């Protein structure tokens, strides 16, 4: 059984989305019946959940450009072929490669102790044996950027800014700025290294990695994230007087390393050259096994597409599943896909990406042409029994398909409840046991429903729809 969103939260979400009465477009009775059948079948989906379990067990962590990411591509090609998808292939590209070899952060004085920390993606290496210096604390990246060089030169910077847990992930968007910019700002002022409070929302000694601003494989200086409790410990020590810390980060970098996008299709019938794109990203960070980020997304889109593939008749349009490579380290797969398919983006009718874990979908946003909004309302009406509220027409789409949205491809964002997503994201705790099967299957149901409607109706989400006078709310 799906776990619908609570009544109070549902009411609040509907108000927040600005939901209001609007005429829906008519939907063929057979299409509606098939859509409802797909939703029902998703309640017992095994394909999507097994895809995540097998990926995270048989491959594990999948750092972009690594041998493990290559194994994940090979594994995915074999799995998608066995599941009966069409046109299964890899579109290869190369990326600058970074990986950690070792990392250690410790207090030297006044109270010697180890701190639980992890190097940020793209961190420069320290000299062998590390660097040691006095810590200077800032409450934000902006405060560091405003500080005089004399205050920072020769020190180890520490930005102690907390990340706020929010349902839509907006707190992460604000908190992640320090991760991106700390090393550059610190290095420009002569700092030896930069430490940040992990950009996560859990209270455990579980550091949170992620990419930082960089040119090529490596950023401006050594940078690491300390866990929340260790950040608190460091702050308490600083209230008692000067603190000396040692930072030792050793890395491996390569100018070019192989990556690629794995693509599989459910070929359409009379409109098979028109594409409904369902995306996720195959790579992960190297601390956990990438179950939530983004094994779950891949399981959702594969599970949904497989349900549609098993229908007695294929839909009119082609459904293309894209497992993007190298998302975590700079959206390289997104850029490569847009470059490879740039001449055919007019044939991309609709795109969506699942990259926010496996929490229940509570809102369905669109980015359609104004005249196509009745189509949005029809889809939203069918999803409401799943606990999904009507969203606005300002959908982001997702990281990898953002470039498609900016190129004019209509997108949707099935917004998940991510209130606890950043408890696990980019940490060693991102593992398969964190996925709730019922909540995951609700995601599969939503994706199967809207993808099938988009593929079968022939609707143009860019253009003027036919009059909807016969439609009902």
Protein described:
The protein has 473 residues and is of the alpha/beta class. It folds into two domains: 7-96 and 256-457, Zn peptidases (Aminopeptidase), CATH 3.40.630.10; 111-242, Glucose Oxidase, domain 1, CATH 3.50.30.30. It contains 13 helices and 14 strands. Helix 7 links the parallel strand 5 and strand 6. Residues 4-21 and 467-473 have low confidence and may be disordered.
Give short descriptive properties of this protein:
2 domains, 3-stranded mixed beta sheet, single chain, disordered C terminus, 13 helices, Aminopeptidase, Glucose Oxidase, domain 1, 11-stranded mixed beta sheet, alpha/beta, 473 residues
Helical content class:
25-40%
Distance between the termini: 27 Å
Give the overall form. elongated
Following the backbone from N to C, one meets helices and strands in this order, namely: HHHHEEEEHHEHEEHEEHEHEEHEHEH
SS-derived structural category: alpha/beta
Beta-strand segment tally: 14
Set down the secondary structure blueprint.
Layout: H1 7-16, H2 29-42, H3 47-58, H4 67-82, E1 86-109, E2 113-115, E3 117-119, E4 131-138, H5 141-146, H6 149-152, E5 156-159, H7 170-188, E6 193-197, E7 223-226, H8 228-238, E8 244-266, E9 271-281, H9 291-309, E10 317-324, H10 332-341, E11 348-353, E12 361-367, H11 373-383, E13 389-390, H12 402-406, E14 411-416, H13 437-457
Parallel strand pairs: 4-5, 5-6, 6-7, 9-10, 9-11, 12-13
Antiparallel strand pairs: 1-2, 1-8, 3-7, 4-8, 8-10, 12-14
């Amino acid at each position: 059984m799906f776990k619908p969103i609570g009544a109070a939260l549902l009411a609040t979400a509907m108000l927040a989305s600005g939901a209001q009465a609007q005429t829906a477009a008519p939907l063929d009775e057979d299409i509606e019946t098939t859509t409802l059948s797909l939703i029902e079948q998703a309640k017992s989906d095994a394909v999507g959940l097994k895809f995540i379990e097998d990926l995270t067990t048989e491959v594990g962590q999948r750092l972009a450009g690594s041998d493990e990411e290559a194994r994940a591509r090979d594994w995915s090609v074999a799995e998608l072929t066995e599941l009966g998808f069409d046109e299964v292939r890899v579109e290869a590209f190369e990326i600058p490669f970074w990986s950690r070899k070792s990392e250690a952060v410790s207090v030297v004085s006044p109270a010697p102790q180890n701190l639980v920390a992890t190097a940020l993606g793209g961190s420069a290496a320290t000299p062998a044996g590390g660097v040691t210096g006095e810590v200077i604390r800032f409450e934000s990246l902006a405060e560091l950027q405003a500080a005089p060089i004399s205050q920072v030169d020769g020190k180890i910077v520490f930005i102690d800014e907390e990340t706020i847990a929010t349902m839509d992930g907006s707190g992460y968007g604000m908190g992640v700025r320090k991760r991106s910019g700390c090393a550059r700002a610190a290095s420009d002022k002569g700092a030896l290294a930069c430490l940040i409070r992990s950009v996560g929302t859990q209270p455990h000694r579980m550091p949170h990695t992620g990419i930082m601003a960089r040119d090529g494989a490596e950023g401006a200086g050594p940078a690491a994230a300390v866990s929340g409790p260790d950040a608190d410990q460091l702050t308490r020590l600083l209230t008692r007087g000067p603190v000396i810390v040692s930072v030792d980060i050793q890395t491996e970098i390569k100018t070019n390393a192989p990556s690629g996008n794995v693509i599989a299709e459910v070929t359409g019938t009379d409109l098979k050259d028109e594409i409904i794109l369902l995306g996720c990203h195959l790579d992960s960070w190297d601390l956990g096994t990438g179950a939530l980020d983004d094994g779950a997304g891949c399981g959702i889109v594969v599970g949904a597409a497989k349900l549609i593939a098993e229908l007695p008749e294929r839909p009119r349009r082609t459904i293309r599943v894209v497992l993007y490579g190298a998302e975590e380290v700079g959206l390289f797969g997104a850029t490569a896909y847009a470059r490879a398919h740039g001449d055919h983006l007019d044939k991309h009718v609709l795109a969506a990406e699942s990259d926010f874990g496996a929490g229940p979908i509570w809102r369905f946003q669109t980015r359609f042409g104004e005249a196509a909004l009745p189509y949005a309302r029809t889809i939203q009406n069918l999803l409401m029994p799943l606990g999904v509220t009507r969203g606005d027409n300002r959908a982001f789409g997702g990281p990898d398909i953002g470039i498609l949205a900016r190129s004019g491809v209509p997108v949707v964002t099935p917004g998940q409840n991510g209130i606890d997503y950043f408890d696990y994201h980019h940490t060693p705790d991102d593992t398969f046991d964190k996925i709730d099967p019922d909540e995951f299957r609700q995601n599969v149901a939503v994706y199967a429903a809207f993808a099938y409607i988009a593929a079968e109706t022939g609707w143009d989400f860019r253009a003027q729809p036919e009059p909807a006078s016969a439609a009902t709310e």
